[in-house]
Every structure is written in structure tokens, then in C-alpha cells.
């Protein structure tokens, strides 16, 4: 990269302080005077040692202020001095200089004042150009030593104080060419030693160009005795390239230049040749080794690892599934052994009871004359009465009578009748629990009191007892072989039944008004949802069915709720019971890259009680799988848009099963039968009815069900447009109610379709019937509910307003519409703001838990989420492989295009890296949260830990964070081949990837996928441009806080540390011009890591705060 004039000027400004301090190495007058007194004869070696010692301990001459000024480019002063001026290995050039000057070399060295003057020349750009007059070189006095490459002496009788920084000594005598290994600036008459890595021979006149090769100056015209001298200037690499040891050569001393041999490489400014790697290609005079072979090997190794992961991921998952299957078998075996032990105990009790009965009969016959029929063995019957029936029964195990088997057969028939005739509400005719328990139809809905927990417990016992006996019958026939999991559940829980806490929801005058618009979404809705019953919510489009469910669950954001909602007779918020409330959304929000069983098992582990044993959880999941008919597809992937999985009906059942496995007390479903055929709908509804028999309160929104499905519901809530109730009561009496107000269902017409068509206004009612808009009013009057006055007024004036539409009213309506546009817009804005406020309030409010269920804590949920996300990543191995392949291609392209430039320390390649790698990393990191927003919203609403979810995602993404820098550098480093080590580059790039991944999380959570992708592309480019602005400008100050600035600084510092010796001025000038410092490497890395942590915290707050319904 070629620097412009401004950059060059800024770089020159900092050469003054640099040279002033580093070239004070020559100040040590005490040793010099001693050496000069010895004379010239036989003292060359002694004077050489004195000359070297005069600047070998130069660090003592640095005052603390100057050392502090150079701290940005010098970390260890001694180490930098040794790298630049440690000539202990070879001092031949010093000896040669002593001999050339005949021992007068000390008087030709520059003093502190002359070094400062030279620094000012470089600062003002006059190192090679215009001269600034000084004491020795001006318009009046111009000695030969003033020319570049020449120097003079102060004379034999005059002593030189090299520490004097205020006054130049008069130095115009005995002018000679500058010694080899030294440089003599133009406008000064003294010498300065060249640093290691420089090549400073005597120049030769080029007759063609008239210049002194290899330097750029020309001898003064008209002076035949003035020959070409030595080097004339030491500066940065751009302006004094000829002073640096050429690439492909190495310079052990400043007067010796040796070509690199084969198998070695020599970069510019090298003092020794470096050995090439074994597989690298290095011809003679090679400036850099070709290590592409190692890049190809690294690429092959990473590709092999990715292929292994991709091909073995399926085996890993299958092995895990086999392990889980064995776990299920162990759970089933444990439950089976428990059942067998209970059966043996029952058999023993039966035998003991029989012996006790016989003993009692004996005693009765002995001590009493009366014989009671009640003392006879009830299990014995006349042989002729039971011979035929017993012949048809299978052999029974010990302790089980044929009467009991006959009882099981009756129970089987009863359950079959229940499934074949779901309308029946008579229940089972078994004398268990409360014998006086009546159905709501027997006492009427209005007088029905809240069911007691004891009654619900009895219902649950009836259901489990019946199904348990069925499964026992099957199991005993097979002698406890091939027992189904649902049978194990029923048999294992016969004695100790886990009852679910009942939830009865009563609501009165429930009204929802949209904030900012005063628009009613629901109005005057009253009724109740009872445990053990299946309620259907129906109505035309726009009637507020889903809004009604949101109001019950307390999720109606942006609305003012009036009325009363009682949970078990108490005004508790519904959120206090969310651990035992299941909500099935209308959309099938199921993880497509998990199997059916994995989806259900994850929900069960996170939402069932933490103290529930694992075998019990396994059995719960198996019961749900069997009840929903998902056994054939339990190991099949649900499927995504790109990859087809199970059918739509099965997916819908999995969506319902996610809530059933947590054994809810209240189950709310939003159109679970939409998109299902008749058989699938019936299968789903039968499974829900079985849940209701266990005391579960089920409420679901349906849209025009078939007559068969309609008769399977217990209660119906029929809503009209505007959220008004038209009917709320048993399904069996709905036709009777509408017939009482003059609305009859025609023959061969589905009643729910007919009612909804009436509410839509499609079906015209007879002239004698009421208007369909008055049906809500009729229902309120029928039940004695209070009626709002505006409803009475609108009903009374409806007849007079029919057909009136004069032209006089058209204009005011139009004017009102025009005038209210601004008001409507303001109302819309206020409504949106209120919705966001309510959602934030809902997310941050802490509700008292009244569910009496302790679910797994954050750590356990983190473990479950970690397993799920890891499994999903393994199934997305192909997508991960594509991401790595793109990084490899980017590394090849950028490493080839951006060749390392010594004068800029590889700035261009690192600039491309800081743009490309964050861009590619952000786009791939967006998938972590963009695609799972709906799943998270559903799971967090159910009480799952948001922190566990976020931490699990981030933990799994750490694997990609570690691998991606290595993948990119495997190509970029070996094609670009900078001086910094691959470890330094990896550490910096690792911090960059960690930082931008957190930023991508925040973008993915807050913005839509399209907006997040656009910002991920623009952000690295814009921030890089801002970070490259001048630090003195406003944009430059902003750039100081950009991660691109920290990344570029860390990359360039890691590379600049490898440049020493002759590169010292170049390094200091470049770092100062960019505002970098060598001691900023660790702070830059820490800043990147802190920004990554902060961005993750922001992303988590956004995740919890900005949730949608």
C-alpha cells in the first residue's frame, strides 16, 4: 500500500523522538578520552572496544520521560537495543572505521544536539530534500562533510561532549566519506551507526544515472575530488528502501550481504537465513517460503474430520437412541416387576382371606345354631351354573378367580361402549367413591356446584381402574410377556394413583377492550370451564375465539380486561398455574430436526415434576405416544420445509402431545383439528376425552367440526362477531335452545355449520324469527345476565334504521373519515405501544406459583437443552460443513489477493479478514435464534427456563467458535504467510468470532430474519470504515469503540512485534500514525471478549423482553 502525503507527514513527525533517544548510544566521553590518549599505534582493537562500549549501555542515558514517550512501540528497551545495535558477534566494521579514520572515529560521531537536528530534518521531510541551515552547514559555510554520505572531524585538540544536546560542535575539518556500516545525513558533518538488518556499504558512482549506487544521492557537481560516500539516511521502509537488507538476502553485519541458500528463506531486513519447513518449497534467494502444502494438509485434515462427523453423526444418534430404548426397557421391566410383586401380594392376601372366611364359618357352625347365607364363600357357585362360562375362559394365575375375570370382561365392554358412544355422560356403573355423584345434566348447569377433589379422584380411579383391568387381562393371558407400556402404567398405578390438581375456571362479564382504540374484542362473556369436561369454542371468523383463550390465560396484550376470572373460586392469576396448564397453539410449533419421541421426551423431562422417577416419565411418554397413535412414527423425524418428515396429521398430534406429556390439569387448544381428516380428528378427540376422564379441564377452539366430532364435546361456547356469547352450555341441549327461539336445524344439515352460517349472515332466518344480530342479546336475557344499555338501544332502533340510506348522510361520513385519519393513526400507534408495554410487563412480572409442582431447575434444564441442541447440530452437519467450506474458500481468496506488505505489516490482508470472517460468522450465527423464535416463545410461556435455553445454544455454538478461526487460517495464513505466528493470529481471530457471534445473537433476536441478515452484512463494512478514520475526528473517536478497531490493532501489533532492528523506525511510525501501541494487544483481546459477553447479555435481555404472543 502506498501512503499518501498526509500519512507520510504524520509518520515523519515521530522520527525525531525515536532517533533522538536511540542514537544517544554514542554518548560516553570518559571512555573516549581515555582511548584517544593511547594514540593510534597498536590501539585499533582497544579503540574498537571503547567505541562499542560507548553505546552498548545506552539505556542509562534515557531519561524516564523519553522512555515513556517511546513506550507505544518499545516494550523492552534492552531487547530492542540488542536487536538493533548489538554488534558483539562481529565488530569488524568498527575496526575498519577506526583504521579508515586513523583513530579519529570518536570525534566524527554525532552528539545529542546533532541527533536532534537530524530528527527535525526527518520530521520536516528534509532528510533528502531542502536543508535547514545549522552551525556547520549554511549558506556561508558548506564543508564537504555537509554532502550526503560524508563526515568531518572537530580536530585533534578539541574534545567532544557527546551528551551535549544544546550546542553543536564545530565539525568541518578533515572531511572524508562515511565509514561502511555508518550513515551520514545530508546537512550534518557526523556519523551514526546503521542498525542491524541494514546494509550500508560505500556507494559507487553510476555513470549512466550520475547517482551513487545503491543510494539515491548524487555527488556535488564541479568537485572532482568529492567522490561518493557511504549511506546517507535511515528512515522508514518506504523512503529508505535501499538501506534495508534486500529480500532473498541476509546481512549478518551492516557491511555484509549474503544470498539465501536453497532450503532457506530471507525476508527483507534479515540478519540470518531461516530454515524452511520440510514440505515447503524454498529455492535460492527466496524471500518467503511456500507453505501451501501445509495448508492443503490442514485443509484435508479438517475436511476429513468434517466428513467423519457428518457420516458418524447418524451412528452417534442411533447409538444414543438405542441407549434410550434400553433405558425405556429397564423402566418397563422395573414397573413389570413391581406389578408382579403386587399380584403376588394380592394372591397371598386372597388366600389368607379365604382361610379366614373358612375359619369364621367353622366357628359360626360351632357356637351358633343359625347359618347365615352371607357367611358363604361368594366366589363359589354351583357347578352347573358356571361350567359353560369357565370352559371359555383362559387359565388364570394363582389367586385370581373366574368371577374377577368376568368382571374384567365387563369393564372391557364398558370402555368400548364409551369410545363408541362418546355422547353418553352416564359414566361407569361401579360403586366406587361417592354413590350420590350426579352429572351436570341431572341437576342443571346453573345449580351445579364446583366438583370436589374427592369426586375427581373417584373419576380418575374409575378410568385407570377400567383400563388397568383391560391391560391386566391382556398381560395375564400372555403371562406377563410383551406387556405394553400403557398397560404397565395402569397396572403400576392401580394402588397409588397420581391425581392431578383440579382447575375450574369461572368467568363473568369478561370484556376485552383494545387500548387506544376503545374497540371491544370480547364483551360480557360469562360461564365456566369444568374439570373432566371437553368444551368447544366455536364461532365465525372474527368472533374472538383465540382472543377468548388469550384472555383466559392472561396473555391478551394491549387490552384492558374487565370482569372476573376465578380459578377454583379464587381470583388468582392464571400465570400462577402455568406449570400445570397446557396451551396448544394453532400452528404446529414442533422441532422438525427431532424425532417424535425426542420432542415428547424433552417436553416431559422439562415440565414434569422433578421428583418424578425417570421410569415414570418414560411411561408417561409411552402412554401419550400410544393414545395419539404415534407408535409407527415414534423414531421418525418430524420434518422441516427442506426435508420432509411425518404427515400433517401426525405433526398436529405431536403438537398436542407436547402438552399432554406434562400431565396438565387445564389443557387449552387453538384449532387442533384444522387440516386434519375425519379419522385423524376423531383419534385426536378420543385421546383428549381419555384425558378428560382423568379430571383434565379441556377447552379447544374448533371451526365447523363434523357432526360426529360435534357430539363428542361436552360443552359448547358459541360466539358471535364482536366477542359476544350466543350460547354456552351442554352440547346436547344446543339444538333445543335454538329451537325455543325459532331457529331449527334443517334435515341433513350439520348443526354447527348451520349455526355459524346464521352468525355469518349467510343463512336468512324466517321473517318470524329474530335477527341474527340479536342472538347475543337473547342469550343474555335468557340467563338473566345484565345487558349493556347500548345493546338494548341498538336492538330497539335496528328495525327503524333498515333501508335508510339518504344522500344527506354520505357527505358527513366521508368528512368524518377524512378528518379522523390522523386520529386513527395516533390510536394505532398508542395501541402498539400498549401492546409492547403489556408484553414486557408480562415477561418480567414474577407470579406466585400455586401449581404445587416443582419442575427441574435451571441446571437440569440446561443439561436437557444442551442435549437437544447438540442433537440438532449433529443433524445439521451438512449445513455446518457448507459454512466451513465457505470459510476455506474465503481464506484461499483473501490470502492470495492480499499479499503481505512489510511497510504496512500486512494491513490489507487483516482488513479483508476483519470484514469477511465476521460477516460469514454472523450469517451462520443468526440461525441459532432466528429459526427457533416460535419454539422459544412457546416453551418460555410454559415455564421453561430462558437462561437454560440461551446458555445451551451459546455453549454448542462455542464449538463452531473454536473451529471456524482454525478453518479460515488454514488457508489464509498459509497463502498470506505473515511474520506473526499462527497461534497469535488464531487467538485474535478467536476473540473476534466470539465477539461477533454475540452481536449476531442480538440481531437475530430483535430483528426479523431478513433485516438481521442485511445488518450482519453491512455492520462489518461500516464499522471497518469508521475505525479507519483519523482519531482526531468525531468518527475516529467513535471508531475507537468499534470491535473492528480492536481486531485490526491486535492483528497488526502481533505482526509488528516481529519487526525489529532496522525496522524500528518503520514500526514506530506506523503504530503512531494509526494510534496503536504494542501494549494494547491484551487490552484489545479483552475488549473483544468483553463486547462478546456484553452483547450476549443484551441478547438475553432482548430474548426475555421482546417476546411476541
UniProtKB/TrEMBL annotation:
Matching InterPro entries, A to Z? AAA+_ATPase, ABC_transporter-like_ATP-bd, ABC_transporter-like_CS, ABCG_dom, ABCG_transporters, P-loop_NTPase
- Which residue numbers delimit the ABC transporter domain? 505-746
Compartment list: Membrane
Gene3D superfamilies hit by this protein: P-loop containing nucleotide triphosphate hydrolases
Q: Where is this region: Disordered?
A: 321-397, 792-819
Topology relative to the lipid bilayer, per the entry, is: Multi-pass membrane protein
**Domain of life the protein comes from:** Eukaryota
Q: What is its main location?
A: membrane
Q: Where is the composition biased (Basic and acidic residues)?
A: 321-353
What's this protein's name?
ABC transporter G family member 28-like
Classification from the root reads: Eukaryota, Viridiplantae, Streptophyta, Embryophyta, Tracheophyta
Which gene does this sequence derive from?
LOC104239840
